[in-house]
Amino acid sequence: MLNLALFPTDSLSQVVNILFWIVLLVFYPKIMVAQVMFQLENSVIQMEQMSEKAKDIVLKKISKKPDKKTKEQVKNFMEFFVIPPVDMDPYGIVKKFEHIIELEKGRFNYFVSQVAPALDSENKANIVMGLSASMSLYQITKVMRHFVELIKKTKSYNLALIIQMQLPLIKSIAKSLYSGTEALSNGLVIGDGIGPYVAAKYVEDGKVEEVDDETVMSRKKVNGRDVIVLKAKGPGGRTGNQGKVLEKIFKKEKIAKIITVDAAAKLEGEKTGSIAEGIGVAMGGIGVERSYIEDVAVKNKIPVDSVIVKMSQEEAIMAMTKPVLEATPKVLKILEETIARTKEKGSIVLIGVGNTSGVGNNKKDAAKAEGDIRREIAKMEKEKKEKKRRFRLPF
Questions:
Q1: pLDDT tier at 2 (50, 70, 90 boundaries)?
Q2: If DSSP codes are grouped into helix, strand and coil, which group holds residue 231?
């Protein structure tokens, strides 16, 4: 028997303390890596499941009972990639990007026509947008799986921590892309559609001209001024070619002012649906269409005003929320004031920037879109309440 009396209490506690710290120093990093890896692995599995569900949403839109060939075609197309042009010499970079974008659009449209030849052009446009969102989610999931496997291979605790720190943002983007796939595939109005939605409210029934495959134009008198309204052709998911169309318009008539309306990313702490005015072209994306508009404005000293409706990046690609919809009357009022204070002679061009999914081309279509938005909002609120009720504690 060990006689504990031989070990003073203080000495015993010191030995235990030293042993504890030795064990902690040896095993703590491994425990932390294991904990982080467990979290990362679970998150990637969830993202992979979302990616598969997003792909199924697109497949069901293509066909209610897609055959094996169609499934294989969509699976293979998920690996489609676009290589950006060389930009070491910036001269001519816009034309290079324009060429690449046109090739990309052509390839997407061709693929959808191959797998869903019986659908009309608007449904095909929705599938193109839904497929694009699904592919983005798939690519993010692939990158996350790559890093998880790399961490397993290298046992790099630092790399695991870096990925863990970014995980909440990555998961948020993945969830919004999944919701965006569902919304775009089904032709719902998304947050980014606020620009086309406002533009459609200016267009009278039966007074729309299709300028090209993706863009429509209309003319209207507002406060005695000639206003030309440009937006992407709806209600299928498209973003339009407003820059090129504006260039053509300028060659035929004088332009007094350009006004753009678009969704914009809000900062944390700012309210969704808040509005801001400014100058310059409010238009996201790579910048090809924006470049065309800026070229016309700069060369001819045309003032450019912008109105933005703020929302998070996630809200921009999800079904439109109530705060964004309720910002519309305020935007319309600001536009009237902007048009009224224009002193220059000539036409005023109003450009509704954004994805026109679910938004038609005139006031009547905009009213229908509003009804669809409100029904979707009611559905989301009901699901939110149901979720709260389901997880409510019994005490």
A1: very low
A2: strand
Distance, in Å, from the CA atom of 228 to the CA atom of 159, rounded to the nearest integer, reads 53
Quickly list DSSP for 253-291: S-EEEEEEEEEEEPPBTBPTT-EEEEES----SSSHHHH
**291: Cα separation from own chain's centroid:** 21
Q: Which fold has domain 191-383?
A: Rossmann fold (3.40.50)
pLDDT at 354 over 90: yes
265-289 burial, b for 16+ CB within 10 Å, e for fewer?
Answer: ebeeeeebbebeeeeebbbbeeebb
d(CA 310, CA 263): 6
Asked whether 190 and 184 are in contact (CB, 8 A), the reply is: yes
Are the CB atoms for 258 and 298 separated by under 8 Å?
no
Do 115 and 70 touch, CB atoms closer than 8 A?
A: yes
What is the reported pLDDT for 95? Answer: 92
pLDDT for 227 beyond 80:
yes
β 275-279/347-352 pair status:
unpaired
- Dihedral through CA 47, CA 319, CA 308, CA 249, nearest 10? 110
Query: How far lies 288's CA from each of 88, 101, 191, 355, 382, in Å?
Result: 17, 9, 22, 16, 41
Which of 173, 170, 180, 172 shows the shortest CA–CA distance to 148? 170
Q: How far apart are the first and last CA of the chain?
A: 53
The angle formed by the CA atoms of residues 187, 190 and 195, to the nearest 5 degrees, is 110
In the chain, where the domains are located? 11-185, 191-383
